[in-house]
Amino acid sequence: MKILVINSGSSSIKYQMFDMNGELVLTSGIVERIGLEVGNISHKTFINGEEKKVVKEFPIPNHKVGLSEVVNLLTDAEIGVIQNPDEVSAVGHRVVHGGEYFNETTLITPEVEAKIEEVIPLAPLHNPANLEGIKVCTEIFSSAKQVAVFDTAFHQTMPAHAYRYAIPEELYKEHHVRSYGMHGTSHKYVSAKTLEYLNLPKEGSKIITVHLGNGCSMSAVKDGKCIDTSMGFSPLAGLMMGTRSGDIDPAVIFFLEEKLNMKTDEIYNLLNKKSGMLGLTGFSDMRDVEDKINAGDAQTRMARDLYTYRIKKYIGSYIAALNGVDAIVFTAGVGENDTAVREEVIEGLDFCGIKLNKEENSLRKPGIREIQAEDSNVKVLIVPTNEELEIARQAQDLIK
Ligand SMILES: Nc1ncnc2c1ncn2[C@@H]1O[C@H](COP(=O)(O)OP(=O)(O)O)[C@@H](O)[C@H]1O
Ligand SMILES: CC(=O)OP(=O)(O)O
Ligand SMILES: [Mg+2]
């Protein structure tokens, strides 16, 4: 069975095709700079252990043009992995916001699409792009089942005291203003992998997952279920990120409006796209940040201290929420690759028995691994996330 996974963003589409028989990745790629003067597609195929890469640059005015070209590549006589779109049994779509409607993976119907559309105000950067991906795939892969996997679904088990805000009741009742949390597919995948790897029973387990990519979030997972998470109403809350501020006193927004005459959309843009690591240092990619720190740049050092300090504070609060912790798990681009970030986060947590094996932490090895010190009371792990595989598995389970 072949399953295509689509992670459609506002200006990009990431995709992977799996042969679920053996969970093999046949193709993976990214369409970028949609809507700009020149767009590009970077497409890789893996056939019989051999990797082939194609890069194309041309104007990609919208998602449909981008996905049509992806289909051309998928069915290409030389590098294609299918002969026609009918060979795809299901398309699994990452949908960032499902509001309170969806706590599990769902077959997409016109009613489901309408609900995803209804919650656009809760995720104005992500949901419209996700819907666009669904519309275009429904047309192109017309015989495939279209399946929605929601970033918010895993967090739907949070208790009210974790997801509610202390604002007037009607804002929740009538307008659904509450915390939802995102990156749920990743938190679910890595927390389950951790239990499996450590051979821990779900019941009684206490895991803190730390997803550090471009977007960053953390979850407290008890008995295999999410009880709290750092993103909130939208993906802007919580940790400091590549370009997002994370938690900020809402009074700053009134100040920007009143004193600097900024408009709502300008403030939105400022906090989502020009803040975080980018706003403080000029760089959103942690590799660039690392270079600046190594060159002795004090401002960049401060920015990174802010980044890791906030993660540490969330670890502290989640240990309190969980009444203990069995394992702290790092994942995603920064979490899996950045030795210094992990070291700075764990530094100074020895008061509660959390200690790192610095040498093990500094090694670059693939796969799941433990990096805590021998005398640490708590496990510290690196668990590579795989949101695409998780989406493909969930889509397969649903259509079976
Ligand atoms: N070797 C590395 N060292 C430090 N950071 C890295 C490394 N490789 C990737 N990253 C970071 O990972 C980020 C992307 O993470 P990823 O999980 O792919 O994000 P997203 O899925 O949100 O695009 C990059 O912006 C970069 O900062
Ligand atoms: C929800 C979110 O932040 O997603 P991403 O990390 O892909 O931007
Ligand atoms: Mg990601």
UniProtKB/TrEMBL annotation:
GO CC terms, sorted: cytoplasm
Keywords: ATP-binding, Cytoplasm, Kinase, Magnesium, Metal-binding, Nucleotide-binding, Transferase
Highest rank taxon of the organism: Bacteria
EC number in record: 2.7.2.1
Protein family membership: Belongs to the acetokinase family.
Main location: cytoplasm
Pfam families recorded: Acetate_kinase
UniProt keyword Nucleotide-binding, yes or no: yes
CDD domains per record: ASKHA_NBD_AcK_PK
UniProt cofactor(s): Mg(2+); Mn(2+)
Biological process terms in GO annotation: acetate metabolic process; acetyl-CoA biosynthetic process
Residues given in the record as Mg(2+) binding sites: 7, 387
Cofactor binding mode and count: Mg(2+). Can also accept Mn(2+).
Residues that coordinate or bind ATP: 14, 211-215, 285-287, 333-337
PROSITE patterns listed in its UniProt record: ACETATE_KINASE_1, ACETATE_KINASE_2
Positions with a binding annotation for substrate: 94
Presence of keyword Nucleus: no
InterPro entries to which the protein is assigned, alphabetical: Ac/propionate_kinase, Aliphatic_acid_kin_short-chain, Aliphatic_acid_kinase_CS, ATPase_NBD
Protein name listed in UniProt: Acetate kinase
Biochemical pathway: Metabolic intermediate biosynthesis; acetyl-CoA biosynthesis; acetyl-CoA from acetate: step 1/2
Localisation per UniProt entry: Cytoplasm
Site (Transition state stabilizer) residue list: 183, 244
